[in-house]
Structure formats: structure tokens, C-alpha cells
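User: Run a structure prediction on this.
Assistant: Running it now.
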Amino acid sequence: MKRKELLQDILDQSYIMESSLSAGDFEIFEKALAAREELLKKLEQLPKEELDMEEAVLMRNVTEAHQVCVELLANMKDETEESLRQTRVELANLQRTDKAQTSYTGEEGVGTRFDETN
């Protein structure tokens, strides 16, 4: 396979990765990432020659697509961390509410006030 064809295939996989990240589809992202890694290995095995103009443009596009993927992953990481933080806060609030409900009723799930005279 020629270098230009490999670069085009790498670019195609990079675009698939970018669009799958934008859509939140990690399964397709992982497949495209694996395919791109294989193509990159093949590219590394080719003799080292200076890139012609078309190859240089393809390489620049691959680099730009890679950078977009890195940014999307960083944004997803931040969103996930914020979501986890919010979930922890909500869980703590639920646990506090459950403890308050238990102490009010005397047992979990009973909706009447616990009366010590019973």
C-alpha cells in the first residue's frame, strides 16, 4: 500500500473517531482507533522519504483531526468528572434523607412517627 493511500485511510479513521466521539459512541471510536493504530504501524514500516505536497496536506489533516479527538476526549472527561461529582452529592443527600426518615419513623419505609409508648 502506498504512503498516500495509508495517510488517506488514517485520515478516514481519524474522522470516524471524531464523529463517533461527537455522537458519544465509544464502541465505534474504539474500532476506529484500533484500525488507525494498525495503519500507523504499516506507515512506520515504509521507507522514510520526504512527503510530497499531497502527503503533507494529508498528514496535516490527520494531525488536526487527532487534535480535535484529544479535545473531545478532554471535554468528555471533564463532563464525566462533573457528573460523578454531582452524583456523589445527590447520593450523600439521599443517604442523609434516608437517615432522617429512619430516625423519624423508627424503621425504614414506615410513614408514621415512631412512638416510644408502643
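The first helix runs from residue 3 to 23.
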